[in-house]
Design goal:
The complex is a heterodimer of chains A (55) and B (471).
Chain A: H1 3-32, H2 35-38, H3 46-52
Chain B: H1 29-40, H2 42-45, H3 50-55, H4 57-82, H5 91-98, H6 101-136, H7 145-161, H8 163-188, H9 199-202, H10 209-220, H11 240-267, H12 272-275, H13 281-288, H14 292-326, H15 345-361, H16 364-392, H17 409-451
């Protein structure tokens, strides 16, 4: 097994990790917040919201 | 909402009306530049050179400049319209406000297909590049699939986590890829005393005459395909009226320089018969220069340009899909914004398996042709859009961040060049062109008879625009 074989396995593993992180966060978010909140964005209103946003 | 007026000289025509969540306005003009140039620059590293195969070196230069005019018109028109439509969705949102729902639905699909197919093509290229490097180091038979999947999954994760990090990443790698082209030009040109370029020996007349020039227009689009993607950042830039025109116009200027330098260096190092079918022409040019430094630099540049393009494509396709979901042109489920990362996370997730299917299962040339044709349909919509925009909302009725000059000449030029390019595409990919137009007709019928009833008729227009003239 050379470095390229190891890189192939590493790429499979990292792909799975990124996929799992995304799916886990997606499920957590959807179960924590209602669609009333998640779907409430509308065009043309965000500049003022950003001014109110606290980082 | 009524407290805010788009004719205001102090704000960008947008104001609050009670939403609980929204995309985050954190981007500046440099991010807009990175989004536009990042999507396109891979076309300088590969693909444009097929225009050399169609008509020779001079035909590729003529195509480069005529396509440059086409895209300059695109950039100017887009800059004006989108500086007033500061919402996600780009040309989809423009069409929704200016033309009508059926046009908007079609334009939205053009955008999503063009970017998702281009993302898949970029992922395929990442796999090809890894295989090339493995071969150079003596490893045969590399499995490209894990690298293709990793490229898509990593960039999807980055996009999921937030737009600022995503486009800052694009900014850095795009700047490196662009600098690599400049460095290659400087090191190989007579400016620094080099004599490796052999234009006098390699340049020929037009091998296929003027028909070859016409055929070269198809691949001439590659030099600039995707610069119009800057508009998708409209809902996430701090100042849409200023940042979008600035980033877009700076982007097209960058690409005109990069395209011309790329052509100059490559045709001075390779005969047109070879260049016309090369897989990675800039990397090949660096290898032929005899410099290991340039070879490594352009190898990195090729990989970075590919990743920047895929990254921008995920960003843009997801914004278009999100905007269509938000207006109920698609199931509203897609219109969700992540409460912490403030990204259209469901749209990003939904498009990942589609990109994977095309990246792992479809041939590269078919994927790219589908992307080009969707882009061409989108450019055909733009002149119609801007003429209607100027007619419905003349200059003194709505605030613009940028007013493009010589109207309607750019619109007429753009429409004429699109017509020429359709013919050029028809010469090489006539069946695909007809099949794709048939596809869009079928989905338009579906939208009209089945989907339009769900669209939020009045509620989709929340920007406080004045009433159009004549209505």
């Amino acid at each position: 097994m050379d470095i390229w074989n190891i890189m192939e396995y590493a790429a499979w593993a990292l792909s799975a990790v990124f996929g799992l992180i995304i799916v886990a966060d997606w499920l957590k978010t959807d179960s924590t917040y209602s669609d009333d909140v998640l779907l409430s964005s509308q065009e043309g209103e965000l500049e003022a919201m950003t001014e109110e946003h606290k980082v | 909402m009524t407290d805010f007026d788009i004719t205001s000289k102090t704000i960008d025509g947008i104001g609050p009306h009670g939403a609980k969540i929204g995309l985050l306005r954190v981007l500046g003009p440099a991010h807009v530049w990175a989004l536009g140039v990042g999507i396109v620059l891979v076309g300088e590293y590969m693909g444009w050179n097929f225009s050399v195969g169609k008509g020779g070196a001079f035909a590729a230069l003529i195509a480069c400049w005529f396509a440059g005019i086409l895209y300059t018109c695109v950039a100017m028109i887009d800059s004006e319209v989108t500086s007033t439509v500061a919402a996600a969705g780009g040309q989809y949102t423009q069409a929704k406000h200016i033309v009508g729902p059926l046009m908007a639905f079609n334009v939205g699909l053009y955008l999503v297909f063009a970017y998702t197919m281009l993302e898949a093509a970029n992922a395929i290229t990442v796999g090809f590049l890894m295989d090339t490097v493995a071969n150079m180091t003596g490893h045969e038979g590399l499995d490209q699939r894990p690298f293709i999947i990793l490229a898509i999954m990593f960039l999807a994760w980055l996009n999921y986590r937030g737009v600022l990090a995503t486009l800052t990443f694009s900014l850095v790698i795009t700047a490196i890829a662009f600098s690599a082209i400049i460095i290659l030009f400087l090191f190989t040109s007579p400016l620094l005393g080099s004599d490796v370029l052999q234009h006098q020996a390699l340049m020929t007349d037009l091998p296929y005459g003027w028909l070859g020039v016409l055929a070269a227009m198809h691949f001439g689009l590659w030099y600039y395909l995707g610069i119009e993607g800057t508009t998708q950042a409209a809902e996430e830039v701090r100042s849409p009226a200023r940042a979008l025109p600035f980033g877009t116009l700076a982007g097209i200027m960058t690409l005109l320089i990069a395209a011309t330098l790329t052509w100059y260096v490559c045709v001075g190092l390779m005969p047109w018969e070879y260049l016309g079918q090369a897989g990675v022409p800039l990397f090949d040019a660096a290898r032929l220069s005899g410099s290991t430094f340039l070879m490594v630099l352009l190898g990195i540049g090729t990989l970075f340009a590919t990743l920047a393009s895929a990254n921008g494509c995920i960003n843009d396709a997801s914004r278009a899909w999100f905007a269509m979901g938000r207006d109920h042109y698609l199931p509203s489920w897609f219109g969700a914004v992540h409460p912490k990362y403030r990204t259209p996370y469901r749209s990003i997730i939904f498009l990942v398996p589609i990109a994977l299917v095309f990246a792992l299962g479809a041939p590269l040339d078919q994927v790219i042709t589908f992307s080009i044709l969707s882009g061409l349909l989108e450019y055909t919509f733009m002149p119609i859009n801007v003429i209607m925009f100027r007619k419905k909302w003349p200059l003194d009725t709505i605030k613009r961040g940028y007013e493009h000059p010589f109207h309607p000449i750019p619109a007429i030029v753009l429409l004429s060049l699109c017509g020429i390019t359709y013919f050029a595409v028809f010469l090489g990919y006539g069946t695909q062109l007809v099949a794709m137009i048939a596809f869009y007709i079928v989905v338009s019928l579906w939208f009209h008879f089945r989907r339009y009833r769900f669209v939020r008729r009045a509620a989709q227009f929340t920007m406080p625009w004045p009433r159009p003239q004549g209505y």
